[in-house]
Amino acid sequence: MKSAIRLLSKLSIITLVTAFSVNSYATSNDEYQGLTCDAKKQAIQTKINQAKTANNTNEVTGLEKALQEVNTNCKDETLEEKYKRIVVEKTQNVTDKTKELVEKTKEYAKDKLNANQDKIDALKSKLNEAEKELTEAKNNLADYYNKLKAK
Question: Which residues are in coiled coils (predicted)?
Answer without folding.
Answer: 106-147
